[in-house]
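Try this one yourself first.
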C-alpha cells in the first residue's frame, strides 16, 4: 500500500528526491505527487519547469510582492492543498507535451485536435447535404410518378387512393453509404 508516494515501512525516496539525489524527508513536498515507481513524471516536469519552481508552487512560496502590498490575505497566493494534485497533473501533461513538441507543447496537440474537429464537421455537413439531396430526389421521383399515372375523378375521391405527399421518408443507408464516405 502506498501512502504519500512511499511504501509503508520503507525509506524509499520519492521520484523527485531520487532524481535530485537528496534524502527524502518525512514531510517531503514532492512525495505525495511523484511516487518512487513513476520516475519519468518528475524527470519531465523537472526538465521543463525546474524542481525549484515546482517546489515553490507546491509550498505556496514566491508570491507576487506587488499584489501582496494591496492584499494582506494569504488565500489569494497559496494553492489550496486539495488542488495541488490537479496542478501537478497539469504540469506533468504540459511537460510531457513539451518533451514531445518543444515548440508548441500542448497547444500543438490542442490545435491538431481542433483541425480534426473542423474536418469532421465538414464531413458531417457534406453527409447531411447529401441526405437532403437524396430526400429531395426521392420526393421528386415519387411526385413525377404520381402525375404520370392515369387518374380518374372517381378514383381520386375514393378513400383507398393515396394522397400526394404520402411518401416513405426512411432512407436506405446501404445504397448510398459508399458515396458519402469515399
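Now uncover the answer:
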Amino acid at each position: 500500500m502506498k501512502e504519500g508516494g512511499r511504501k509503508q515501512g520503507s525509506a524509499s525516496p520519492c521520484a523527485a528526491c531520487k532524481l535530485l539525489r537528496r534524502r527524502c524527508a518525512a514531510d517531503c513536498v514532492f512525495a505525495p505527487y511523484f511516487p518512487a515507481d513513476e520516475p519519468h513524471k518528475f524527470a519531465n516536469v523537472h526538465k521543463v519547469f525546474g524542481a525549484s519552481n515546482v517546489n515553490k508552487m507546491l509550498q505556496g512560496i514566491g508570491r507576487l510582492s506587488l499584489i501582496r502590498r494591496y492584499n494582506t490575505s494569504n488565500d489569494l497566493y497559496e494553492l489550496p492543498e486539495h488542488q495541488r494534485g490537479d496542478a501537478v497533473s497539469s504540469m506533468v501533461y504540459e511537460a510531457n507535451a513539451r518533451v514531445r513538441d518543444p515548440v508548441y507543447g500542448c497547444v500543438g496537440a490542442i490545435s491538431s485536435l481542433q483541425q480534426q474537429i473542423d474536418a469532421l464537421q465538414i464531413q458531417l455537413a457534406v453527409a447531411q447535404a447529401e441526405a437532403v439531396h437524396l430526400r429531395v430526389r426521392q420526393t421528386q421521383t415519387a411526385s413525377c410518378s404520381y402525375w404520370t399515372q392515369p387518374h380518374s375523378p372517381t378514383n381520386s375521391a375514393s378513400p383507398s387512393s393515396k394522397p400526394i405527399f404520402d411518401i416513405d421518408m426512411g432512407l436506405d443507408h446501404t445504397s448510398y453509404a459508399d458515396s458519402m464516405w469515399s
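Discussion: The chain has a mean pLDDT of 76. The longest helix spans residues 106-148.
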